[in-house]
Amino acid sequence: MDTTIIPSLRAQDYLSDVKPIWCPGCGHFAVLSALAKTFAFLALPKEDVVIVSGIGCSSRLPAYIDGYGFHGLHGRALPLASGLKAARPELTVIVAGGDGDGFSIGGNHFLHACRRNMDLTYIVMDNEVYGMTKGQASPTTPPDWTRSKLTPHGTGLRRFQPPAIALAAGASFIARGFAGDPKGLTQLMTAAIRHRGFAFLQVLSPCRTFRPEQQAWKAQVHPCLLEPTHDAAHAAALIQRDDGMATGVLYAEDLPVFSPRRPAEVGLDTIEAELAA
Predict the structure, then answer these.
(1) Which segments within the chain are labelled E, that is strand?
(2) Which CATH architecture has domain 21-276?
(3) What does pTM read for this prediction?
(4) CA angle, 195 as apex, 107 and 234 as ends, to 5°?
(5) Distances (CA, A) of 169 to 178, 205, 246
(6) Rounded to whole angstroms, how far apart are CA atoms 156 and 15?
(7) Are 156 and 143 in contact (CB under 8 A)?
(8) Could you read off the pLDDT of 128-187 as tens digits, one per residue?
């Protein structure tokens, strides 16, 4: 009998040899670090974890993790991850993206991923700007932000409210973290991955290149004053009164998890019988 003891992996063991090319000071570095620490804390085998992303600065993350990953089309990370989870439900599937990828071109997928409530963890690095394409306004950009040449007078549009939308669409776990709080961010990632169902984690991740004013976030973020609620109506009131800077778990509920039948579990005879019925 082989009695060899396999040592636990450290956080750095989950990092690949690819050097991140984010701008110096980008909050995404902290997200990457927190994710590696979370994997190590949970002792997740590398072969059992997959990170799926779309397009954008944040969506480069799979390349920086030593493990399985899929860098997909813009805004399509969630349907890709859903298909993977349906085919391989035993895997821990993490979806990573940004506010543009997730809430603009991927907005419809976000809604239906929330209501489907598959066992996925969706981490959105929200810097309220399209960083990779040189600083255009995103769905979460304040209406009076005038630094973009495309919207020199501001967008004039109300901001997308990710936690409120997630709650209304049916997500069973909603939390907000801050890249400048690596310990708290690691704790939230751990809770999100452990949650059975669709876990949405919005991470306030400053962009020092196109949104240098976001450096003030460090003094503005604060813990959520209330304990996490299991009541959707209570959570809705909490989120609507929130200033957008409260961190912590905002909502967590044990809801039915959608788990479609795997193809191997459905034989041709079953399909023919269903079609003939």
Answers:
(1) 49-53, 68-71, 92-98, 121-126, 173-178, 199-204, 222-223, 246-252
(2) 3-Layer(aba) Sandwich (3.40)
(3) 0.91
(4) 70
(5) 23, 24, 21
(6) 41
(7) yes
(8) 999 888 899 999 999 999 888 888 999 999 999 999 999 999 999 999 999 999 999 999
